[in-house]
Amino acid sequence: MEVRVLTPTGMLGAGFPPETVTRGLELGADVIAVDGGSTDSGPHYLGSGTAKTAAAAVAQDLRLLLRAAANARIPLIVGSCGTSGTDSGVDWVAGIAREILAAEGLDLRIAVIYSEQQAAGLDIERIRPLPPSGPLDPATLESCTHIVGMMGHEPIVAALEGGADVVLAGRATDTAIAAALPLMKGLPPGPVWHAAKIVECGGQCTTNPRAGGVLATIDQDGFTIEPLDPGNSCTPYTVAAHMLYETVNPHSMREPAGTIVVSDATYTALDDRRVRVEGSRFEPAAQHTIKLEGARITGYETMSFTAIRDPHILGQIDTWAALLRKMIGEWVARTLGLGDGDYDFDLRLYGYDAILDDIEPDRSPPKEVGVMLLVHAADQQTATAVAKVVNPLMLHLPTPDMNYLPSLAFPTSPAETERGPAYEFVLNHAVDVDSPTALFRIHRLEATDA
Question: Which domain holds residue 208?
Fold first, then answer.
């Protein structure tokens, strides 16, 4: 038996060539699986329960995939809906899907899986920290604006077995989305989980990731992976290399139900486009766990940005930046009466050392530098007030040896941009569960559902 998994792109809303999905259907795809989110872009999206993708971009991809699923009569699975997999994210994607189905006249049954958790409903005695986190303080749990549990394949399988044509899941492991149908069909977990890991980012495992997604054909002994674009290629190098992506150990990766082990896997080029992988195995865990992700508000931020092209300042940019940091503290204390603990600020010199900071190997004078000030305070008013106090310094601050005031360049007016609440991830923990589906709620959407 074989199961073919079509992954059109690494993230719903990122776009893909429509013809590549057509190609996947021609090759006999049994399921379309696509990730809808990530924590890559930071805690804001989980903390606020909002999506990083535009509704129009999600609708564009979803319309193509819903049509494909309907025409081929195969399931469509989307995981981590709305970026972070909150309940609002699932409902947002479901709303878009329902509008498309109505407009296109498609008769597909939708199941939604909610993964959001309430602090009061979690047994803190069963929550364990993941490195490098420490034991969980109940106050930390309660401070989260949103908490999600990262589901494995089991809730998705339950939705498929319940008759769903389209599964829109909350937070899920990237691999669970692709692994669900092959595992439901009885294929061995070793090749299934390894294949799911390789296809999780679509064309990332090919020589040209921009050319579209991939198709994985999984069987009893292994899997074969090929690009959906006939001009693109998979090689043993590009396929094997994806085990290095977002993993602590390139030879293994933990899932809620156990661990993928690929230390004995072999990667063989079948031709100049396709790769065959065998020798993967899956080691079941003694205890099923669900990873928890949570974010909370840490305060509010205001940003200001100016640009320097004065060669005299750029010749001693470190001295200028040190002076600016010193004067920010002095001016804010004198003007607003604020001291250490009342606010924080970050000063970044883009074009010089904003990325690597002190370990930047090339510290030669640049031709121009963008200076970003990011002020963080307990409330928006304070953060903005600090940025406004600093405004004259970011416009006219000279170096100590200059006898005139330079004019630097604000790109926007007003110069201060209020960024609103700032969030931080505070949960890097796993909770022991008695059932793989216990923390998740599955609902079938009927035509009359709002």
Answer: 3-115+151-288+433-445
**Given the structure tokens 């804010």, which residue do they identify?**
332
For the chain, the C-alpha Rg in angstroms (whole number) is 25
Instruction: Let me know if 57 is exposed, middle or buried by CB neighbors in 10 A (0-12, 13-18, 19+).
Output: middle
Total domain count for the chain?
2
User: 202's torsion region: left (phi>0), alpha (psi -120 to 50) or beta?
Assistant: left
DSSP 315: T
Tell me if 366 is assigned to some domain.
yes
- 98-129 burial, b at 16+ Cβ within 10 Å, e below that, comes to bebbeeeebebbbbbbbbbbeeeebeeeebee
Query: SS3 for 245?
Result: coil
Q: What is the pLDDT of residue 447?
A: 52
For the CA atoms of 206, 209, 215, 218, what is the dihedral angle to 10 degrees?
Answer: 50
- pLDDT given for residue 449 in this prediction: 53
Please name the amino acid found at residue 340. D
Side chain identity, residue 110: I
Read off the tokens for 328. 């920010």
Q: Which residues of the chain, if any, have pLDDT below 70?
A: 446-450
Residue 114 pairs in a beta bridge with 441
Residue-level pLDDT at 363: 87
Q: Are residues 304 and 387 in contact, defined by beta-carbon separation less than 8 angstroms? A: yes
Tell me which DSSP letter residue 151 carries: B
Domain shared by 350 and 378, yes or no: yes
